[in-house]
Amino acid sequence: MPLRVIEIVTPREDKDEVVKSLEEHRPDEGYVFWASPLDDETALTFRVVLDVQESENVLDKLENLFSWSEKYRIIVFSAEATIPRLKVPVKEEIPVNPNGENAENDAAKRKNRISREELYSDVLDTSVMSKSYVMLVLFSSLVAVIGLMRDNVAVIIGAMVLAPLLGPNVGLSLATTLGDGKLALESSKTLIIGITLAFFISLCAGFSLGLPEISSELMLRSTTSFSDIILAIVSGAAGIISFTLGVPTSLVGVMVALSLLPPLSACGIFLGAGQTTLAAGAGLLFIANIICLNLAGVVTFLLQGIQPLTWWERERAKVTAIRMALLWGLMLAILVLLLYFRIIQ
């Protein structure tokens, strides 16, 4: 089971309060901790070693304890192992009152994922606009165009694995779930710039090189079927779970299954070559993948229990998440109807 180390830097005068809080919660979370003095003789550092599934509970309690002040600092990092092994905490049954509610409304629940703060940090890294992101979009777009033009599956898979558009979409889904307007704006900006750049590159390629005589890979991305929608939803949910589990190796398969860049590149190539009907088909497939990914992302984040710390932020985020889920669901319903009527005609 993955381990985490939570390092807490506090003023020395707050040692007793921090120790008391850590001792109170240790039986429930099953962690070990110790304190060490820092060189400046005014601060202490506490290190807490615990199971990754308990990290969010502990972080939330610490954040509530410190309520937040610049004189404290919390750092989270991975640990390979600890000897002796951590004991699995025995969870006592929480008493239930006559109304059927738990006596402890805020009782900690074991979460089978990384903490909210770790997840936010991981997603933020892939959602912020940077020179590296622009170069990744540029290179992966060129790889996708070459693969589609040459009808080479291996090269196209290379573009899928690079997947520069996946991160901003996940960031947008997380921002929706947390009600984080700043992350939503940053993710949207990054996604729009990535889509625009990738489309422009493929459009120029289609205009200057024309359409290959035979390219089955291009033609495969000129139509959308119900199976494509199902695949996008399932792959999107799997990708979100991979993010919440902190397992980046699982994302490779998701990147290949959930194809974002190749349909967008195909749309640009078709349009540049003057094939507007085929371009519309490829564009529809790309839009379908975006819709399904974001819908699956919001729903999966909610099912994984991703939510803000305070109750007022949770209520606001819940309303935002429900509205966005309904919006993505409505867009998906319209897309399904378009596909249905196209098939029966």
Task: Tell me what the structure shows.
With 345 residues, the chain is an alpha+beta fold. It folds into two domains: 3-79, Alpha-Beta Plaits; 116-344, no CATH class. The chain is built from 13 helices and four strands. It has helices at 15-29, 55-66, 116-127, 131-150, 153-162, 166-178, 181-209, 216-220, 226-245, 251-257, 261-272, 276-303, 311-344; strands at residues 3-11, 32-37, 43-51, 73-79. Strand 2 (32-37) and strand 3 (43-51) form a beta hairpin. 36% of the residues are buried.
Q: How would the blueprint of this fold be written?
A:
Blueprint: E1 3-11, H1 15-29, E2 32-37, E3 43-51, H2 55-66, E4 73-79, H3 116-127, H4 131-150, H5 153-162, H6 166-178, H7 181-209, H8 216-220, H9 226-245, H10 251-257, H11 261-272, H12 276-303, H13 311-344
Helix pairs in contact: 1-2, 3-6, 4-5, 4-7, 4-11, 5-10, 6-7, 6-12, 7-11, 9-10, 9-12, 11-12, 12-13
Question: In sequence order, what are the helices and strands, one letter per element?
Answer: EHEEHEHHHHHHHHHHH
How large is the share of residues in beta strands? 5-15%
Number of helices: 13
Helical content, roughly?
Answer: 55-70%
Distance separating the two termini: 54 Å
The average pLDDT is 85
Number of strands: 4
What is the domain total for the residues?
A: 2
Which structural class is indicated by helix and strand composition? alpha+beta
What's the shape? elongated
| Biggest sheet architecture | 4 strands, antiparallel
Strand order of the largest sheet: 2-3-1-4
Uncertain segments:
94-108
Radius of gyration, in Å, reads 24 Å
Keywords: Membrane, Transmembrane, Transmembrane helix
Organism: Maridesulfovibrio ferrireducens
Pfam families: DUF389
Protein name: TIGR00341 family protein
